[in-house]
Amino acid sequence: MAVGKGRGADVGDLVARARDGQARAVARLISLVEDASPRLREVAAALAPHVGHAQIIGLTGSPGVGKSTSTSALVRAYRARGKRVAVLAVDPSSPFSGGALLGDRVRMQDHATDAGVFIRSMSSRGHLGGLSWATPQALRVLDGAGFDVILVETVGVGQAEVKVASAADTTLVLLAPGMGDGIQAAKAGILEIADIFVVNKADRDGADTTVRDLRNMLGLGGRHSDAGAWRPSIVKTVAAKEQGVDELIEEIDKHRAWMESKGVLQTRRKDRALDEIEAIAVASLRERMGDVHGVASLSQLASDVVSGDTDPYVAADTIVKEMGH
Amino acid sequence: MAVGKGRGADVGDLVARARDGQARAVARLISLVEDASPRLREVAAALAPHVGHAQIIGLTGSPGVGKSTSTSALVRAYRARGKRVAVLAVDPSSPFSGGALLGDRVRMQDHATDAGVFIRSMSSRGHLGGLSWATPQALRVLDGAGFDVILVETVGVGQAEVKVASAADTTLVLLAPGMGDGIQAAKAGILEIADIFVVNKADRDGADTTVRDLRNMLGLGGRHSDAGAWRPSIVKTVAAKEQGVDELIEEIDKHRAWMESKGVLQTRRKDRALDEIEAIAVASLRERMGDVHGVASLSQLASDVVSGDTDPYVAADTIVKEMGH
Description:
Chains A, B: One of its GO terms (molecular function) is GTPase activity. The structure is a homodimer. Chain A is an alpha/beta fold. Chain A has twelve helices and seven strands. A seven-stranded parallel sheet of chain A has the order 3-2-4-1-5-6-7, with helices on both faces. Chains A and B meet through α3, α6, α7, α8 and α11 of A and α3, α5, α6, α7 and α8 of B.
């Protein structure tokens, strides 16, 4: 159905035009991901020979730390280095994504006339597989389309969004001065996902305190240094004035060089592929679940669980067993 | 393994003691959920005859709107009405859950000496199924343990967290004056999940503007009213001074009465059971995936996807097909 959407453009042609730098072709491919189109199967096949080139940088942080301004500054800096840059703003359409969203999206239009820049918000609202299903496939489109650098900015700040940002080659966690309480509350999570901490708005009071707090939290004081592991670095920026951006890119490159020397880049990409395969397999299994049982029988199982006649484990067993046949 | 954890207490005994009002037994059952214990199967069976009594109220909103203060005020009000109350604070251990978290958890200890109140933060960090797997099972524990009212407060503000809050019988969305930009940015999501909007901190400037903005957004101005549907109500509170809490409970009761009269309560509970069954079935399928293929063969598929020798759809097909045998 919805044949009109492609308007005669077959998938191979769309991919060729995307690789040729046509933003509308790229956008249409990403729409196919958002719509969970059946044609994604063909898209994946057409992209396969072309993937693995892009450097994927994840970017996350609380509302108000300057994520979009930083993304914009990074775009400009990478453009100055001659790179083709894509921005994927993953927006789960959460009701609580914070106030700055719309304005910043507009600000990104600084780059609107630059053919070497592609910017796209993506929502996976309503799709069963959610962000973990849609994001890797969108990244695959951008990678296959030949972008050198892909910035993935997550708008929401929950479990799914953090997972998205942490699945990049290099993950930047943004902070701003005066948000020390949040750091305290959350240290466990931050320690794990950040490859590089960016203390943005570093011209404000308290920037050095934030850096010091971070250092203490990370145990960078010199007490212990695990020789094999990457020690997250800390970079101060004022993205709105484009200060510190070159240093940030230097750190990103340093992290990339470290990953390559240790084989970590390949491991991360394999992990991402595993997640992607699993998400597609699970979505396909979910579909089969519905097929095998029909809506009526699933609904009866749910009623039995509500009434207490059975429990959800027994109900799940019933479904899984039948799938084995 | 970890037999010592149960210290000889079998699951039937734990459930009996939980129903008897022993907080430690309830806490231990919830820990089994967090740990994704194999004993959950027995727990679910032992709980089944006892579920379906509790009223489940979801509570969500941006950092700073006063979620924990509101939860605490609701606990006090329900206790004054003689109800046993449980609070489940669903905390995905997101790095960015906002600064107020720890302090507010402490404040909740107002209720620490009241045997009719059970308060628990739950993290599902690291578990494959995430919040959608763990939360319904924790609610089932609290429901089966005989609590009259269960407040589910989500700490994070992303896709998974909003889904959790919206799976309650009645979902409260909290706002505070002066956050109008956020409303604008997010109206679509808010319209969908809120049964009742709570404008907290209503003694601050701008409270009436927030209410008016909400009304306009909701089309409550009188232009169209869908006769069959629930029209989200708006309640002003100052939770820190316990103002407006009785009115809020009145609205919650009104919503419950409406749901019962329309059969919506039963539908919501069935939907929740369906989600729960599906999450358990998918987790079980994921396990089987690993069993069927072994780590080596999955890893090879991922490598082939990274190198472009195959694409993730073909890789997922391989897995799903083998599961059919």
